[in-house]
């Protein structure tokens, strides 16, 4: 698997055999795993999830064990909301509402987190208080109109909306960017770093070394907040 096709954070992968290491009893081997941020030659960092929010675990798999892949942008294009068993929950109603507006901004986007997992698998894991997580792929800087449009979207989403913007170097929070504090936390495969410009940073390639400047709780145990960051 070359660098251009290497799975990215929030992609969903189906594996041909179980992940490496000791596995929890709650793991469903027929469910996809979620790509998370880390680095390891020839290996893919993944997050395992179960039916409960507390059932999350960091793990690894070989690139050769990937038999299927769904990226968030596919979920946005395939209109999987239609006929979904939980289509009337606030998070899915919000997705239905924001989808045409995101399309109109000309950005590449897709749902991640619990919503993305539910749409990709059909498993009814969502709750009335589930967030709507979205990944926006932005290798080039978003313009002022797009930034303003995203700000308006976040204010009127109808549920808690968490948008992560992905540059070449890593991902950062839209909410933090809109706060205009001078720096944002850029999550890279080498750890989180505080940057003034997430589109112009020395760690400008996801396979380059990038020294973390922020303490974090990366792999080896439960993943706080979800299976991918």
Key structural traits:
229 residues; alpha+beta; SH3 type barrels; 2 domains; 5-stranded antiparallel sheet; 4-stranded mixed sheet; 5 helices
Rg to the nearest angstrom?
A: 17 Å
Ends apart, CA distance between termini: 22 Å
Strand order of the largest sheet: 4-3-2-1-5
Strand content: 15-25%
Question: What is the string of SSEs from the N terminus onward?
Answer: EEEEEHHEHEHEEHEE
What's the helix count? 5
Structural class: alpha+beta
Low-confidence stretches: 205-209, 211-228
Count of DSSP strands: 11
Mean pLDDT: 86
Approximate shape: globular
Estimate percent helicity: 10-25%
The total domain count is: 2
Q: How many strands, what sense, and barrel or not for the largest sheet? A: 5 strands, antiparallel
Domain Phosphoribosyl-dephospho-CoA transferase MdcG C-terminal: 86-198
Pfam families: MdcG (PF10620), MdcG_N (PF20866)
GO molecular function: nucleotidyltransferase activity
InterPro entries: Holo-ACP_synthase, MdcG_C, MdcG_N
Question: What does this entry show, briefly?
Answer:
With 229 residues, the protein is α+β, with helices and mostly antiparallel strands. The chain contains five helices and eleven strands, in the order βββββααβαβαββαββ.
């Amino acid at each position: 698997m070359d660098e251009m096709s290497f799975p990215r954070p929030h992609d969903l992968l189906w594996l041909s055999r179980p992940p490496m290491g000791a596995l929890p009893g709650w793991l469903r081997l027929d469910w996809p795993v979620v790509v998370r941020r880390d680095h390891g030659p020839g290996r893919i960092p993944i997050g395992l999830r179960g039916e409960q929010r507390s059932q999350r675990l960091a793990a690894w798999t070989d690139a050769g064990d990937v038999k299927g892949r769904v990226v968030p942008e596919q979920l946005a294009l395939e209109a999987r909301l239609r006929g979904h068993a939980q289509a009337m929950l606030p998070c899915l109603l919000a997705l239905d509402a924001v989808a045409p507006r995101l399309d109109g901004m000309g950005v590449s986007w897709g749902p991640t987190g619990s919503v993305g997992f539910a749409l990709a698998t059909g498993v009814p894991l969502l709750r009335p208080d589930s967030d709507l997580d979205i990944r926006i792929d932005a290798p080039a800087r978003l313009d002022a109109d797009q930034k303003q449009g995203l700000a308006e979207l976040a204010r009127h989403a109808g549920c808690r909306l968490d948008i992560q913007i992905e540059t070449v170097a890593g991902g950062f929070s839209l909410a933090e960017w809109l706060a205009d504090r001078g720096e944002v936390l850029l999550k890279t495969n080498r750890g989180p770093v505080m940057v003034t410009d997430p589109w112009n940073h020395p760690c400008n390639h996801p396979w380059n070394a990038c020294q973390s400047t922020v303490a974090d709780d990366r792999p080896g145990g439960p993943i706080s907040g979800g299976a991918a960051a």
